[in-house]
Design goal:
globular; 18 helices; alpha+beta; 532 residues; Dipeptide-binding Protein, domain 3; 2 domains; 29% helix
């Protein structure tokens, strides 16, 4: 999933939040905010059902139309949303949330504990992309209308962060149930509400869905019954605009107020005093991955061979070639700014040692290797150009890459099937928590990348230490948990299956009269904080 910045540089971000309520707006400002704010972006929505949605735009939509129990402030600190207070027990196996009694849905009905229980059970039982967030939940109890007690299968110091993810949206259970939504164990086969959610919403957030035109736009309007401070904007339109150049043209022509996916090269061409460009670090990164168990391997990708490949990658040169000063190198598959994500040493570039390792493994003359990857541009990086640079680097140690850019759907089928010897792809967080990186990238039995690395065919790729550190970190909290996450990151570096390369910056481009634009670790772009 996809987009989010480093805590120590957040002071450089535009974090101005509208502080005045509608009662104190000057008439001219109020009139101006009646004009829809238009956001140009490539809309990647897979669903408007908040428990089926799983994408970058979904983060914006879910957090604008629905609410979670908690959210994050601009410094990634947990703050109240639907829950006014919360606490966990000492061993991180039980969490109690007290709902704000003032919270109400857009139809005026109160948000109650039964809605939280129903929503989270539905998320889990739909068995969709974000259902994994509830995998560790054993039970949800509702002792009264304003209390929710969540019992975990195993300790999880991450659950409070998960409760701030927009995918844990709380839905009006009565309204959604009447529309065919189900939360029972058979929800994945009996729920038929997805079509209803394309034209309706049932949340408690500052906005409600007005209309959705696939491949065209999503239109939101102010929730007049919002229980907190009303948003400044009366209407927001997210307009389908596929590429950065078209988004920049809309922004400069005045037909858009915010352009969300401007790349560094396009940003350099944008002029005009009424356009503001802000560059902030992101939590997204692009990586190369190796599959020791891929059926197409021509030689065994032993630890020595994988280390040689890593040593042959000239990472500073790769950074220069792709995004230059508009990003940074990343050593472990844990972003800077996440717990345990800082302090990793830069990965070495050593052609002599790479050749020595290859000779030791019996490949002094090199070998050929298939490299299939999604043929797309992501976060301003063209993966085809990136892999051409990787191809040039590896040629210096006589590894010949057969580059195969393919559609993303085909890539997904191949990587999850017979595997791909080498690939390049990208990752963005689903919530503000480090456990997702160990769950996804670690060489632990059953993890997505252990499967893609061919652990069933090549079990030597598994790393038991990562499982131990994962469990220990989930049972810890604070600095102790961060220390354990960092140790897990060190182990993932040693695996040399996931080779992170670059973390591109995010470019915020918007009209100078738009206030409150910032990049959020949970919600992407918080619409309720915007005004113009």
């Amino acid at each position: 999933m996809n987009i989010l910045p480093r805590t120590r540089t957040r002071a450089t971000m535009l974090a101005a939040v509208l502080m005045a309520t509608s009662a104190f707006w000057a008439p001219s400002t109020f009139a101006q905010d009646q004009k829809p704010l238009v956001i140009a972006r490539n809309i990647d929505l897979n669903s408007l059902d908040p428990h089926r949605a799983f994408c970058d735009t979904c983060q914006i939509y879910n957090s604008s139309v629905y609410e979670s129990l908690l959210t994050l402030d601009k410094d990634n600190k947990l703050v109240p949303l639907l829950a006014s207070k919360w606490e966990g027990n000492a061993d991180q196996t039980s969490f109690t949330f007290t709902l704000d009694p003032a919270a109400k849905f857009s139809d005026g009905s109160p948000v109650e504990a039964k809605d939280v229980k129903w929503s989270w059970e539905r998320l889990k039982n739909l068995k969709g992309s974000a259902s994994f967030l509830m995998d560790n939940v054993a039970s949800i109890e509702t002792p009264d209308a304003h209390t929710v007690v969540v019992k975990m299968v195993a300790p999880s110091s991450e659950f409070l962060n998960i409760a701030a993810a927009p995918y844990t949206a709380v839905v009006n259970s009565k309204v959604a149930s009447e529309a065919g939504a189900k939360a029972g164990a058979d929800a994945s086969t009996t729920d038929n509400a997805e079509a209803w959610f394309l034209a309706h919403s049932a949340g408690s957030a500052p906005f409600v869905l007005k209309s959705y035109e696939p491949n065209s736009e999503v239109r939101l309007v102010r929730n007049d019954k919002y229980w907190r401070k009303a948003p400044a904007l009366s209407e927001v339109v997210i307009r389908q605009t596929k590429d950065a150049v078209a988004q920049a043209q809309m922004l400069q022509s005045g037909t858009a107020d915010i352009a969300m996916q401007i790349d560094p090269d396009t940003a350099k061409t944008m002029t005009g005093s009424d356009v503001k460009i802000e560059t902030v670090p992101s939590y997204n990164f692009i990586y190369v991955a190796l599959s020791p168990g891929a059926k197409a391997n021509k030689v065994p990708l032993t630890p020595e061979v994988r280390e040689a490949i890593s040593l042959a990658l000239d990472r500073p040169s790769i950074l220069d070639f792709t995004i230059g000063s508009e990003g940074q190198l990343i050593s472990a598959p844990i972003p800077l700014g996440f717990p345990g994500g800082s302090g990793f040493e830069a990965q070495p570039y050593d052609l002599a040692k790479a050749k020595e390792l290859l000779a030791k493994a019996g490949h002094a003359d090199g070998f050929e290797m298939e490299a299939a990857f999604p043929g797309m541009n992501v976060y301003g990086v063209d993966l085809s150009l990136l892999m051409q640079k990787v191809q040039q680097d590896l040629a210096k140690v006589n590894i010949k890459l057969d580059l195969q850019p393919i559609p993303f759907a085909n890539w997904r089928e191949r990587i999850n099937g017979d595997g791909i010897p080498m690939t390049a792809v990208f990752y963005a967080p689903d919530y503000y928590g480090t456990s997702q990186y160990i769950e996804y990238f670690a060489m632990t039995k059953g993890s997505p990348w252990a499967r893609r690395a061919g652990a069933e065919r090549e079990p030597s790729v598994l790393n038991p230490k990562e499982s131990e550190l994962y469990k220990a970190a989930l049972a810890a909290s604070g600095d102790e948990a961060a220390k354990l996450w960092h140790q897990a990151g060190e182990e993932m570096i040693k695996d040399r299956v996931i080779l992170p390369l670059v973390s591109p910056n995010l470019i915020l481009a918007y009209k100078s009269d738009v206030k409150g634009v910032r990049y959020s670790a949970c919600c992407n772009l918080p619409l309720a904080e915007l005004s113009h």
